[in-house]
């Protein structure tokens, strides 16, 4: 028997509420209410990946946002652009999103993503659905792009801290000017 809970004249099942809780733990979705989260939940697909299966490659079009339900995902860069020798940048914690640049239209991946455990479960939200939600709900777009900006601001601050602690290994001026 499925129990239905009522919130502001809208009923949500226990499964939907669990999904809202899962989404709400992620910084991208934290500022959204249930009505707004429902728009994303109805476009989410659960997909299971095998160990070492490619989720996406660097330079692929950013066609989806991913949220790790269970298992492990490693984000990697290829050291010599050959797609043969990789260095791990980050192991994605459960409940976290990756591929956030899918929020931006016509963007491409900047790293590779691989499932690094058997039966890695990911929620996938297609970018086309995200952009449809954004086009009809500018307030949602504003909230999520603000969260996206905060994530990247934190990333830049971490990069600068790492640079200061290993001064001289690379030139920030060269990296910064390539982006302009």
Task: Spell out the blueprint of helices and strands.
Layout: E1 4-7, E2 10-13, H1 14-24, H2 34-41, E3 45-49, E4 54-56, E5 64-70, E6 73-78, E7 86-92, E8 97-98, E9 112-115, E10 120-126, H3 127-136, H4 138-165, H5 172-178
Antiparallel strand pairs: 1-2, 3-10, 4-9, 5-8, 5-10, 6-7, 6-9
Helix pairs in contact: 1-2, 3-4
Task: Give a quick precis of the structure.
With 180 residues, this protein is an alpha+beta fold. The protein has one domain: Jelly Rolls (Sandwich).
What structural keywords apply?
10 strands; alpha+beta; Jelly Rolls; 180 residues; single chain
Describe the protein:
The protein has 5 helices and 10 strands, in the order ββααββββββββααα. It has helices at residues 14-24, 34-41, 127-136, 138-165, 172-178, and strands spanning 4-7, 10-13, 45-49, 54-56, 64-70, 73-78, 86-92, 97-98, 112-115, 120-126. α1 (14-24) packs across α2 and α3 packs across α4. It is globular, with a radius of gyration of 18 Å.
């Amino acid at each position: 028997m499925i129990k239905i809970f009522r919130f502001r004249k809208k009923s949500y099942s226990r499964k939907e509420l669990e999904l809202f809780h899962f989404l709400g733990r992620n910084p991208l979705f934290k500022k959204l209410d249930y009505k707004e989260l429902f728009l994303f939940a109805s476009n989410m697909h659960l997909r299971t990946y095998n160990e070492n299966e490619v989720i996406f490659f660097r330079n692929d079009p950013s066609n989806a946002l991913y949220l790790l339900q269970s298992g492990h995902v490693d984000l990697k860069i290829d050291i010599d652009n050959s797609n043969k020798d990789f260095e791990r940048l980050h192991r994605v914690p459960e409940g976290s999103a990756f591929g956030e640049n899918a929020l931006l239209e016509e963007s491409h991946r900047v790293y590779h993503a691989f499932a690094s455990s058997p039966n890695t479960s990911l929620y996938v939200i297609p970018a086309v659905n995200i952009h449809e939600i954004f086009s009809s709900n500018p307030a949602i777009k504003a909230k999520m792009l603000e969260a996206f900006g905060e994530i990247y601001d934190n990333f830049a601050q971490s990069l600068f801290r790492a640079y200061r602690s290993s001064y001289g290994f690379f030139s920030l001026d060269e990296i910064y000017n390539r982006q302009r």
